Amino acid sequence: MSDQRPTRRDLMKPAQLLGLALVAALFAGLVSLVSMGFFQNRYPGESAHALVVGGVVAGITFIVTIVVIALLLLAVRPDQVTHAVDKPVLIARDEAVEREAARDADAPGDTTGRGDDEPGDALDSRDLG
Q1: Which site among 34, 102, 104, 109 is 20 to 30 Å from 94 CA-CA?
Q2: Residue 59: pLDDT band by 50, 70, 90 thresholds?
Q3: CA 55/CA 32 separation, integer angstroms
Q4: What one-character DSSP code corresponds to residue 74?
């Protein structure tokens, strides 16, 4: 296995994404044709109806796949496009985790997050009733 990791730009080529949507649409259209009995000898009008339904299902699947892929690409920050992909895209960044840990370390006695340590300020379950 090579040590070169693909960049996000390599993973997001439009031709590959459109090809994925086309394959999904063809699969959905074929499944709808098979389920409607297009490949069986039935009445003459059923074949045309099955083709129309298969085309509609394939078109809807193609459009939905393109929209979902576009929405998933919006989750990627533009400045991260040229970086190598070495972990999942939607996992929290290490810097954010380190900043949160540093913030928690700055206030060791503060458990409420408000910054005041007076004992009477905490809301108790007995105060609710």
Answers
A1: 109
A2: very high
A3: 9
A4: T
Do 50 and 36 form a contact (C-beta atoms < 8 A)?
Answer: yes
Strand partners, 84: 7
Residue 25 has a pLDDT of 96
β-bridge mates for residue 7, sequence order? 84
Residues 79 and 8: their CA atoms lie apart, in Å, by: 10
34 or 8, greater pLDDT: 34
pLDDT surpassing 70 at residue 35 = yes
Residue found under tokens 């083709």: 51
Cβ-based neighbours of 39, under 8 Å, separated by 6 or more = 33
Q: What is the pTM of this model?
A: 0.55
> Residue 122: how many CA atoms within 13 Å on its side-chain side?
10
Contacts of 76 by beta carbon, 8 Å cutoff, 6+ apart: 8, 12, 89
- Cα–Cα distance, 33 to 35 (Å, whole number): 5
Residue 64 C-alpha from the chain's centroid: 13
Smallest CA-to-CA distance from 21 within 53, 52, 60 is with 60
pLDDT of residue 15: 85
